[in-house]
Amino acid sequence: MKIPRFTYHRPATEEEALAMLTEFGEDAKVLAGGQSLIPLMALRLSRPAHLIDIGGLRELAAIRERSGTVSVGAAVRHVEVERSALVARAAPLAAAAMPHIGHGAIRNRGTACGSLAHADPAAELPAVALAAGASFVVRRASGERTVPASEFFLGYLTCDMGPDELLVEWRLPTWPVTAGWSVQEVSRRHGDFALLGMAAMIDTDPVGRISTAALSLFGAASTPIRVDAAEKLLTGEPPSAALFDEAAEIVKGQLDPPGDLHGTAAYRKHLGAVLTRRCLSEAAGRLGAAA
Amino acid sequence: MSDDRCEVTVTVNGEERSLAVECRRTLAEVLREDLGLTGTHLGCEHGVCGACTVAVDGAAARSCLMLAVQADGCEIETVESLGTEEKLHPIQQAMWDEHGFQCAFCAPGFLMTVYCLLRENPAPTPEEIREELSGNLCRCTGYASILTGVQAALSRGAAADA
Ligand SMILES: Cc1cc2nc3c(=O)[nH]c(=O)nc-3n(C[C@H](O)[C@H](O)[C@H](O)COP(=O)(O)OP(=O)(O)OC[C@H]3O[C@@H](n4cnc5c(N)ncnc54)[C@H](O)[C@@H]3O)c2cc1C
Ligand code: FES
Ligand code: FES
Questions:
Q1: What CA–CA distance (Å, rounded) separates A128 from B148?
Q2: Shortest CA distance to A124 belongs to which of A66, A57, A182, A64?
């Protein structure tokens, strides 16, 4: 199908983009890499009257480290995150997610912030944001607010942003050098959205007991979710295969995933246990690897 | 409606082109219909099959997932830039010799993906080749012959022409 008609805008500055969002509100959509929005429009599932193309805004195109955070601007493409030495060192969980996102040609155009704003529950980056304790800088013409990842994802393709707001920056806390990380998923074909996936981080205290655990699932519900009960079980214990098996059973028990023609709910629950074991053993192997 | 026309200047296969196109038209549509470059194929038109892959500023991109106006100021290379019927590009020649394709509907996308891969990484491992080509679908071959063709292209030094 042909894409429905719209008026195209290419603001020269972020300020101009915000003014356009104020003017057009509900009738407008931000266009970043277009790797989610263009297919939706081609299928006529979305028909905005105005497109505001922020893809070329240089002021939003940087990955920076400052005061304990790594920030990824709204015009930064997946491929730049994937190849960033700064992200590999200071946000290794995000780096580990990148190869799972679609294919090279998709990552050459799509943006990290676009994926986060799109809030697909099966996407990798929202789950990474949730596990890593990231936050989002959201701006409108009249001001700015910062939303923690735990409050940002509200439902299927829905996040805490108004129609006049722009996600300008994804902020990740600089990775604790002692912590280990892993992103694992199962999909029908390489590059497809995951049937189920997990982003995990664990850290240990000086005597080798787990001091922090974050298990964040994607494809499991209408938003990415953390599994508190399994995280509690892990905390205070030394890492071991037996402990990870126990955590895996908890994750399986807590999951209430959707079933569809790609996989039944029971299969996805099973995957929850499998991915928990894989993630935790990989993360344990990487404890201290970022140092 | 003047509102939904956009001015676009792109360099396509080395030649600068300025056009006024409907803003809603994709790069693939403009390449095929306005510029007559029908080598770029359209399969799914929503990003899944890879048939429409072209090089945008040297990097592989889905031309069905890009508005032509998003390519304004960019350098585009399509399959037509690779070789001629008399003198195939080494990647094309290797595919020909190894019977890489059958119906070849998917070929333009595979060829441009391989071309972009070799430009960035002149010595990819078999694993890296599989990974990169995983975004392109072929309904005929089962992929083994395509991978053989890419390996043949590599061993003949095709990366030097990427
Ligand atoms: C074949 C295929 C496979 C894919 N596989 C995966 C996958 O496995 N995992 C995955 O995570 N993704 C996948 N994607 C999607 C891809 O990651 C997209 O790049 C990403 O979801 C959206 O980024 P974008 O820059 O292209 O955003 P766009 O498509 O431009 O925008 C997406 C949505 O977000 C809004 N938006 C974008 N940026 C902002 C902003 N700064 N502020 C406010 N709103 C904004 C837009 O208005 C739109 O509603 C796939 C896509 C395709 C075509
Ligand atoms: S036609 Fe563009 S990916 Fe299928
Ligand atoms: S050879 Fe027919 S689709 Fe690939």
A1: 37
A2: A182
* Mean pLDDT of all residues belonging to chain B: 95
Band (pLDDT 50/70/90 cuts) for residue B3 is low
Residue pair A225/A252 in contact by the 8 Å Cβ criterion: no
Rounded to whole angstroms, how far apart are CA atoms B9 and B30? 12
Residues A75, A28 within the same domain: no
Domains and CATH numbers, chain B: 5-81 (3.10.20.30), 90-161 (1.10.150.120)
- Are A42 and B132 a contacting pair at CB < 8 A? no
At B106, is the secondary structure helix, strand, or coil?
A: coil
Q: What is the mean pLDDT of residues A144-150?
A: 98
* C-beta A193 within 6 A of ligand 1: yes
Distance of alpha carbon A133 from alpha carbon A171, whole angstroms: 9
Range of the domain at A26: 7-53
* Residues B62, A7: C-beta atoms closer than 8 Å: no
β-strand A225-226 against A210-218: which pairing, if any? antiparallel
Q: What is the pLDDT of residues A238-259, one digit of tens each?
A: 999 999 999 999 999 999 998 8
ipTM rounded to 2 decimals = 0.95
